[in-house]
TrEMBL record:
Keywords recorded for this protein, A-Z: Antibiotic resistance, ATP-binding, Nucleotide-binding, Transport
Domain of life: Bacteria
Subcellular location(s) per record: Cell membrane
Membrane protein topology class: Peripheral membrane protein
GO MF annotations, alphabetized: ATP binding
Identification of the protein by name: ABC transporter ATP-binding protein
Pfam families: ABC_tran (PF00005)
Principal cellular location given in the protein's record: membrane
Domain annotation ABC transporter: ranges: 6-229
Protein backbone atom coordinates (compact mmCIF):
# COMPACT_ATOMS: atom_id res chain seq x y z
CA UNK A 1 0.00 0.00 0.00
CA UNK A 2 1.15 3.54 -0.78
CA UNK A 3 -0.92 5.35 1.86
CA UNK A 4 1.04 6.54 4.92
CA UNK A 5 1.34 4.33 7.98
CA UNK A 6 0.32 7.37 10.05
CA UNK A 7 -1.39 10.47 8.74
CA UNK A 8 -2.14 13.46 11.00
CA UNK A 9 -3.91 16.60 9.77
CA UNK A 10 -4.48 19.75 11.84
CA UNK A 11 -4.31 17.85 15.14
CA UNK A 12 -5.30 19.77 18.28
CA UNK A 13 -5.03 18.62 21.90
CA UNK A 14 -5.75 20.87 24.85
CA UNK A 15 -5.17 20.42 28.56
CA UNK A 16 -7.32 23.07 30.16
CA UNK A 17 -6.42 26.37 28.52
CA UNK A 18 -3.09 25.05 27.21
CA UNK A 19 -2.85 23.77 23.64
CA UNK A 20 -0.25 20.99 23.83
CA UNK A 21 -0.80 20.28 20.13
CA UNK A 22 -1.84 23.21 17.99
CA UNK A 23 -2.71 22.31 14.40
CA UNK A 24 -0.02 19.69 13.85
CA UNK A 25 0.18 17.97 10.46
CA UNK A 26 2.59 15.15 9.64
CA UNK A 27 2.77 11.74 8.03
CA UNK A 28 4.91 8.64 8.50
CA UNK A 29 5.62 6.50 5.46
CA UNK A 30 5.13 2.75 5.43
CA UNK A 31 8.24 0.66 5.86
CA UNK A 32 10.27 3.63 7.09
CA UNK A 33 11.54 4.98 10.40
CA UNK A 34 10.07 8.36 11.29
CA UNK A 35 11.63 10.22 14.23
CA UNK A 36 9.63 12.90 16.04
CA UNK A 37 11.89 15.37 17.85
CA UNK A 38 11.10 18.33 20.07
CA UNK A 39 11.90 19.99 23.39
CA UNK A 40 10.18 18.88 26.58
CA UNK A 41 6.53 19.88 26.39
CA UNK A 42 6.53 20.23 22.61
CA UNK A 43 3.67 17.73 22.25
CA UNK A 44 5.56 14.62 21.14
CA UNK A 45 4.17 12.15 23.67
CA UNK A 46 0.62 13.52 23.41
CA UNK A 47 0.78 13.10 19.63
CA UNK A 48 1.99 9.52 19.89
CA UNK A 49 -0.56 8.63 22.57
CA UNK A 50 -3.39 9.93 20.36
CA UNK A 51 -2.07 7.78 17.50
CA UNK A 52 -1.98 4.79 19.86
CA UNK A 53 -5.58 5.39 20.91
CA UNK A 54 -4.73 6.21 24.53
CA UNK A 55 -5.88 9.85 24.27
CA UNK A 56 -8.58 11.55 22.24
CA UNK A 57 -7.96 14.55 20.01
CA UNK A 58 -9.79 17.85 20.42
CA UNK A 59 -9.55 18.61 16.73
CA UNK A 60 -8.14 17.43 13.42
CA UNK A 61 -7.93 13.94 11.98
CA UNK A 62 -5.63 10.99 12.64
CA UNK A 63 -5.40 7.78 10.63
CA UNK A 64 -3.23 4.81 11.60
CA UNK A 65 -2.82 2.22 8.83
CA UNK A 66 -5.85 3.90 7.28
CA UNK A 67 -8.06 3.47 10.36
CA UNK A 68 -9.09 5.61 13.36
CA UNK A 69 -6.63 5.13 16.25
CA UNK A 70 -9.22 3.52 18.54
CA UNK A 71 -10.20 0.87 15.98
CA UNK A 72 -10.10 -2.66 17.41
CA UNK A 73 -8.78 -3.90 14.05
CA UNK A 74 -5.47 -2.13 14.78
CA UNK A 75 -4.64 -4.06 17.94
CA UNK A 76 -2.96 -7.07 16.29
CA UNK A 77 -1.25 -4.84 13.72
CA UNK A 78 0.36 -2.20 15.95
CA UNK A 79 3.06 -2.51 18.62
CA UNK A 80 3.36 0.10 21.35
CA UNK A 81 6.23 0.93 23.68
CA UNK A 82 4.93 3.63 26.03
CA UNK A 83 7.26 6.01 27.83
CA UNK A 84 6.12 4.75 31.24
CA UNK A 85 6.81 1.05 30.60
CA UNK A 86 3.23 -0.28 30.59
CA UNK A 87 4.06 -3.49 32.50
CA UNK A 88 2.41 -4.46 35.83
CA UNK A 89 4.99 -4.01 38.64
CA UNK A 90 4.63 -7.59 39.95
CA UNK A 91 4.76 -9.28 36.53
CA UNK A 92 7.80 -11.49 36.07
CA UNK A 93 9.87 -10.72 33.01
CA UNK A 94 9.51 -14.04 31.20
CA UNK A 95 5.88 -14.65 32.20
CA UNK A 96 4.84 -11.24 30.96
CA UNK A 97 6.42 -11.65 27.56
CA UNK A 98 4.92 -15.14 27.16
CA UNK A 99 1.50 -13.74 28.08
CA UNK A 100 1.78 -10.94 25.54
CA UNK A 101 2.87 -13.42 22.86
CA UNK A 102 -0.38 -15.40 23.28
CA UNK A 103 -2.39 -12.46 21.99
CA UNK A 104 -0.74 -12.76 18.57
CA UNK A 105 -1.11 -15.28 15.77
CA UNK A 106 2.58 -15.49 14.80
CA UNK A 107 4.63 -14.14 17.71
CA UNK A 108 8.39 -14.10 17.88
CA UNK A 109 9.92 -16.61 20.28
CA UNK A 110 9.86 -14.97 23.77
CA UNK A 111 13.02 -16.72 24.94
CA UNK A 112 14.99 -15.71 21.87
CA UNK A 113 13.79 -12.12 22.17
CA UNK A 114 14.75 -11.95 25.86
CA UNK A 115 18.17 -13.29 24.97
CA UNK A 116 18.56 -10.78 22.17
CA UNK A 117 17.87 -7.92 24.58
CA UNK A 118 20.09 -9.23 27.38
CA UNK A 119 17.27 -10.29 29.71
CA UNK A 120 17.80 -14.06 29.85
CA UNK A 121 19.15 -13.86 33.40
CA UNK A 122 16.06 -11.99 34.58
CA UNK A 123 13.27 -14.27 33.39
CA UNK A 124 11.86 -14.67 36.89
CA UNK A 125 12.55 -11.11 38.08
CA UNK A 126 9.47 -8.94 38.76
CA UNK A 127 9.25 -5.83 36.61
CA UNK A 128 9.58 -3.50 39.62
CA UNK A 129 12.96 -5.05 40.49
CA UNK A 130 14.44 -4.59 37.05
CA UNK A 131 16.72 -1.62 36.49
CA UNK A 132 15.35 1.27 34.46
CA UNK A 133 17.24 0.11 31.38
CA UNK A 134 16.03 -3.47 31.78
CA UNK A 135 12.44 -2.24 32.08
CA UNK A 136 12.90 -0.30 28.85
CA UNK A 137 14.18 -3.40 27.07
CA UNK A 138 11.28 -5.54 28.29
CA UNK A 139 8.80 -2.91 27.09
CA UNK A 140 10.53 -2.90 23.71
CA UNK A 141 10.30 -6.70 23.52
CA UNK A 142 6.57 -6.57 24.29
CA UNK A 143 6.07 -3.98 21.54
CA UNK A 144 7.65 -6.07 18.77
CA UNK A 145 6.87 -9.66 19.79
CA UNK A 146 3.65 -9.81 17.74
CA UNK A 147 5.41 -9.01 14.42
CA UNK A 148 3.45 -5.73 14.03
CA UNK A 149 3.09 -3.73 10.82
CA UNK A 150 3.66 -0.50 12.75
CA UNK A 151 5.53 0.17 15.99
CA UNK A 152 5.36 3.28 18.19
CA UNK A 153 8.47 3.72 20.34
CA UNK A 154 8.36 6.58 22.85
CA UNK A 155 11.91 7.35 24.02
CA UNK A 156 13.02 3.72 23.46
CA UNK A 157 16.62 4.17 24.62
CA UNK A 158 16.05 6.47 27.61
CA UNK A 159 18.29 5.30 30.44
CA UNK A 160 20.04 2.60 28.41
CA UNK A 161 23.78 2.02 28.54
CA UNK A 162 25.75 2.10 25.25
CA UNK A 163 25.54 -1.68 24.69
CA UNK A 164 21.78 -1.71 25.20
CA UNK A 165 21.33 1.34 22.96
CA UNK A 166 23.15 -0.39 20.13
CA UNK A 167 21.07 -3.55 20.62
CA UNK A 168 17.94 -1.40 20.36
CA UNK A 169 19.27 0.32 17.24
CA UNK A 170 19.98 -3.03 15.61
CA UNK A 171 16.47 -4.22 16.38
CA UNK A 172 14.93 -1.08 14.90
CA UNK A 173 17.09 -1.56 11.80
CA UNK A 174 15.85 -5.13 11.44
CA UNK A 175 12.25 -3.98 11.79
CA UNK A 176 12.71 -1.51 8.95
CA UNK A 177 14.44 -4.16 6.82
CA UNK A 178 11.41 -6.40 7.36
CA UNK A 179 9.08 -3.67 6.09
CA UNK A 180 7.78 -2.60 9.51
CA UNK A 181 6.87 1.07 9.90
CA UNK A 182 8.45 2.68 12.97
CA UNK A 183 7.50 5.96 14.63
CA UNK A 184 9.82 6.95 17.47
CA UNK A 185 10.33 9.92 19.72
CA UNK A 186 13.78 10.60 21.08
CA UNK A 187 15.95 13.28 22.66
CA UNK A 188 19.10 11.69 21.22
CA UNK A 189 19.95 13.55 18.02
CA UNK A 190 22.59 10.98 17.05
CA UNK A 191 19.93 8.28 17.36
CA UNK A 192 17.61 10.12 14.99
CA UNK A 193 20.43 10.70 12.50
CA UNK A 194 21.41 7.06 12.60
CA UNK A 195 17.98 5.43 12.48
CA UNK A 196 15.50 7.74 10.80
CA UNK A 197 14.54 7.95 7.16
CA UNK A 198 12.43 11.01 7.95
CA UNK A 199 12.70 13.48 10.84
CA UNK A 200 9.92 15.75 12.07
CA UNK A 201 10.87 18.52 14.51
CA UNK A 202 7.96 19.93 16.49
CA UNK A 203 7.85 22.85 18.91
CA UNK A 204 4.92 24.27 20.84
CA UNK A 205 2.60 21.75 19.23
CA UNK A 206 3.48 22.54 15.61
CA UNK A 207 5.87 21.19 12.99
CA UNK A 208 8.79 23.57 12.52
CA UNK A 209 10.86 21.45 10.10
CA UNK A 210 10.88 18.03 8.51
CA UNK A 211 12.88 16.02 6.01
CA UNK A 212 15.58 13.40 5.83
CA UNK A 213 18.53 13.87 8.21
CA UNK A 214 20.73 14.73 5.23
CA UNK A 215 18.26 17.31 3.90
CA UNK A 216 17.88 18.98 7.30
CA UNK A 217 21.59 19.18 8.03
CA UNK A 218 22.62 20.05 4.48
CA UNK A 219 25.96 19.48 2.84
CA UNK A 220 27.66 22.46 4.49
CA UNK A 221 30.74 21.90 6.60
CA UNK A 222 31.74 23.94 9.62
CA UNK A 223 35.03 24.92 11.20
CA UNK A 224 34.89 24.62 15.00
CA UNK A 225 37.41 25.58 17.65
CA UNK A 226 37.67 26.52 21.32
CA UNK A 227 39.30 29.68 22.66
CA UNK A 228 38.80 32.29 25.36
CA UNK A 229 35.26 33.69 25.47
CA UNK A 230 34.35 36.99 23.88
CA UNK A 231 36.53 37.10 20.75
CA UNK A 232 35.79 40.00 18.39
CA UNK A 233 34.05 38.01 15.69
CA UNK A 234 33.21 41.14 13.68
CA UNK A 235 36.93 41.53 12.98
CA UNK A 236 37.20 37.87 11.99
CA UNK A 237 34.26 38.24 9.58
CA UNK A 238 35.99 41.17 7.90
CA UNK A 239 38.89 38.82 7.07
CA UNK A 240 36.68 35.96 5.85
CA UNK A 241 35.20 35.58 2.34
CA UNK A 242 31.81 37.19 1.68
CA UNK A 243 28.98 34.88 2.71
CA UNK A 244 30.83 33.41 5.69
CA UNK A 245 29.35 33.42 9.18
CA UNK A 246 30.88 33.12 12.62
CA UNK A 247 29.28 32.72 16.03
CA UNK A 248 30.15 31.85 19.61
CA UNK A 249 27.89 29.10 20.91
CA UNK A 250 28.19 28.30 23.77
CA UNK A 251 30.69 30.57 25.49
CA UNK A 252 34.25 29.85 24.37
CA UNK A 253 33.14 27.58 21.50
CA UNK A 254 33.30 29.06 18.01
CA UNK A 255 31.70 27.99 14.74
CA UNK A 256 32.68 29.35 11.33
CA UNK A 257 30.39 28.53 8.40
CA UNK A 258 30.85 29.08 4.70
CA UNK A 259 33.08 27.66 1.99
CA UNK A 260 35.32 25.64 4.30
CA UNK A 261 38.51 25.14 2.31
CA UNK A 262 42.27 25.49 2.94
CA UNK A 263 42.05 29.26 2.40
CA UNK A 264 39.37 29.75 5.06
CA UNK A 265 41.26 27.51 7.48
CA UNK A 266 44.43 29.54 6.94
CA UNK A 267 42.54 32.81 7.44
CA UNK A 268 41.03 31.69 10.73
CA UNK A 269 44.29 30.35 12.15
CA UNK A 270 46.21 33.47 11.04
CA UNK A 271 43.60 35.72 12.65
CA UNK A 272 43.77 33.74 15.89
CA UNK A 273 47.56 34.03 15.88
CA UNK A 274 47.33 37.81 15.35
CA UNK A 275 44.95 38.00 18.33
CA UNK A 276 47.32 35.95 20.49
CA UNK A 277 44.72 33.18 20.68
CA UNK A 278 45.34 29.43 20.54
CA UNK A 279 42.55 27.70 18.61
CA UNK A 280 42.10 24.51 20.61
CA UNK A 281 40.30 21.42 19.30
CA UNK A 282 40.24 22.85 15.78
CA UNK A 283 38.20 20.61 13.48
CA UNK A 284 36.09 20.58 10.34
CA UNK A 285 32.78 18.76 10.46
CA UNK A 286 29.32 18.63 8.94
CA UNK A 287 26.47 20.48 10.60
CA UNK A 288 24.64 18.06 12.88
CA UNK A 289 20.97 17.44 13.54
CA UNK A 290 21.55 18.85 17.03
CA UNK A 291 22.72 22.13 15.46
CA UNK A 292 19.52 22.28 13.40
CA UNK A 293 17.38 21.37 16.40
CA UNK A 294 18.86 24.14 18.56
CA UNK A 295 18.58 26.71 15.78
CA UNK A 296 14.88 25.93 15.37
CA UNK A 297 13.82 25.48 18.99
CA UNK A 298 16.26 27.73 20.85
CA UNK A 299 18.75 27.00 23.58
CA UNK A 300 16.80 28.16 26.60
CA UNK A 301 15.75 25.60 29.20
CA UNK A 302 12.02 24.94 29.51
Amino acid sequence: MTSPAVEIVDLVKRYGSTAAIDGLTLSAARGAVTAVLGPNGAGKTSTVEICEGFRTADGGTVRVLGLPPASAALRPRVGVMPQSGGVPPAARCGEWLRLVSRFHARPLDPGALLSRLGLSDHVRTPFRRLSGGQQQRLSLAAAVIGRPELVFLDEPTAGLDPQARHACWELVGELRAAGVSVVLTTHHMDEAERLADHVVIIDRGRVVAEGSPAALTGAERQLRFRARPGLALEELLNALPIGSAAKESPSGHYIVEGQVDPGLLATVTAWCAAEGVTADDLRIERRTLEDVFLELTGRELR
